[in-house]
Design brief:
disordered C terminus; Heat Shock Protein 90; PdaC/RsiV-like_sf; three-stranded antiparallel sheet; Actin, Chain A, domain 4
Amino acid sequence: MPLAAVVRSALPSWATATGAATIAARRHRPPERADPLPTCHEREPSMIDPTRYRWLAVPALLLTLAACDQAKNDPHADSQTSTQDSGSSTTEATGAQDPQGQQNQDQQKGLSPTFVDRTITDPNCQGDQCASVEVRMVQFDSDPALSSDIERRLIRMGSPISDSVVPEDALPTTVEAYADNFFDQSAQANQDSDNPRPYSSTLEAKEISRHDDLLVLELQSYVMTGGAHGMPGTHYMVIDERTHQVVTLDDMLKEGQQPAFEAALKNAWQDWQNNSDAGRTLDPLNWPFSSSDNAAPLEDSMAVTYDAYTLGPYAIGQPTLTIPYSALSDILKPRFIPATDTPSAQSAH
């Protein structure tokens, strides 16, 4: 029989017996003193009989034992305690994070892009025919160095064509400085002209691919300096989101695989010549194959884009050759082959 039931059945008879014993004790105790009892303020602690309340200890003990016995028979008690312990463990596990994992998360958050879209017009010009610079580019507020790198690459692409190469340290470092320099060149070129043709420049950097912790930006420029047409340009910028470092083609190739990559690129060029509308119009003797390191690892293939006049006349634009990853499995480092194109992933399909 459970202890709680025993206590509950014993309490009435125990209380009856205790009451009877108390009455009997009162009948046989000696008469009280005739002198009046002191008031509450006069009574000292030593005058209180400590044995007067000892009888209360027995029911208190029995009630405590009954509560313990009931807790043992309660199926929800352990589960509640277990749930509380589990909740504490979960909180601790959530709070304790891998420092490297947290660093990677912070880096990826830091590469969340913001967009700049602005047009700068020559402040010294009046009217509609004024030199202008239009800028549309991504930047990363938490990584100013990377944002500055994007800006400088666009500035180099937007520099007017000249007979001499402008040293890197001689280039403007900001779009504003580039625009001032660009406007000065436009003013000098048109100062004695009866039919001025103000310069214009469009610079753009946009995201075209993001996979496997790789961010691929496409940088484009179109510079008009008064000729029959402007000069376009397209360059890729590959960023490793784990390190925030710019990745070049050499970084992506396995050691000693540059000749193999050029062979794969030439196969892609031959396929473009044989199967594209633009390629079929070209004589390979006049427009032979040329290698390039302007490569971008996209989700489904490696893209290589050429400047105008490299593989053909201006009219065909800037051709882009594509190489399937199946042709680069032994050439590229595994880090730069998308997970869906690895041999293990292909065999799984």
